[in-house]
């Protein structure tokens, strides 16, 4: 509400709202419900920690039990203008758009590719510090991790070594 972004905690029994954990203020104007519905922010839960992107240049690790932010990572958002990964906003949401993917975890590595940046980020999942980052095609998304490599798909596909960020193969 009012540009504030939060993580909703739901009751397992009936799905009702139990709590809202405030994360941050949006670094831009709040968009309408229709736009936000198409720009989902899926979470990944591992070891009792919720990992979530905001699609506003911030990524969070949250303890849902204590309702505390464990760490956050801020990255340059290219949300403004028709050259961003959110180019579908400039197309009045009628054109194609990048698929949204949940963060992936492999050991200490946490990978995420937000829709507001054409970059794949690899963070230390415990500290939130940057391990590596690399540019990816605008209309691509993080599809999966297998045998230590992340698969980025879009017009083509690329396998990226999770530990180093180096390209393994392109298709």
Low-pLDDT segments, ≥5 res? 79-95
* Rg, alpha carbons: 16 Å
End-to-end distance: 43 Å
Kindly name the structural category.
mainly beta
Major sheet: size, sense and barrel closure?
4 strands, antiparallel
Would you kindly provide a written description of the structure presented here, covering whatever features stand out?
This protein has helices spanning 33-38, 87-90, and strands at 4-10, 17-25, 43-46, 49-53, 58-63, 68-74, 104-106, 109-112, 119-124, 130-135, 141-146, 149-153, 157-161, 167-170. It is 6% helix and 45% strand. The chain contains 2 helices and 14 strands, in the order ββαββββαββββββββ. A 4-stranded antiparallel sheet has the order 3-4-5-6, with no helix packed on it. The protein is mainly β and 171 residues long.
Pick out its properties.
4-stranded antiparallel β-sheet; 171 residues; 6% helix; 2 helices
What would a concise description of this structure say?
It is built from 2 helices and 14 strands.
Topology:
Layout: E1 4-10, E2 17-25, H1 33-38, E3 43-46, E4 49-53, E5 58-63, E6 68-74, H2 87-90, E7 104-106, E8 109-112, E9 119-124, E10 130-135, E11 141-146, E12 149-153, E13 157-161, E14 167-170
Antiparallel strand pairs: 1-2, 3-4, 4-5, 5-6, 7-8, 8-9, 9-10, 11-12, 12-13, 13-14
């Amino acid at each position: 509400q009012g540009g504030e972004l939060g993580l909703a905690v739901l009751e397992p029994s009936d799905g009702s709202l139990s709590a809202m954990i405030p994360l941050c203020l949006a670094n831009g104007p709040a968009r309408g419900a229709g736009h936000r519905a198409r720009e989902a922010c899926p979470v990944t839960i591992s070891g009792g920690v919720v990992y979530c992107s905001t699609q506003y240049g911030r990524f969070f690790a949250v303890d849902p039990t204590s309702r505390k932010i464990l760490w956050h990572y801020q990255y340059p958002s290219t949300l403004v203008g028709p050259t961003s990964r959110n180019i579908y906003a400039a197309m009045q949401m009628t054109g194609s758009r990048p698929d949204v993917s949940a963060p992936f975890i492999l050991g200490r590595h946490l990978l995420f590719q937000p829709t507001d940046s054409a970059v794949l980020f690899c963070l230390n999942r415990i500290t939130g510090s940057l391990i590596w980052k690399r540019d990816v095609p605008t209309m691509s998304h993080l599809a999966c991790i297998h045998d230590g490599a992340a698969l980025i798909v879009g017009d083509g596909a690329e396998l990226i070594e999770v530990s180093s960020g180096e390209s393994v193969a392109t298709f």
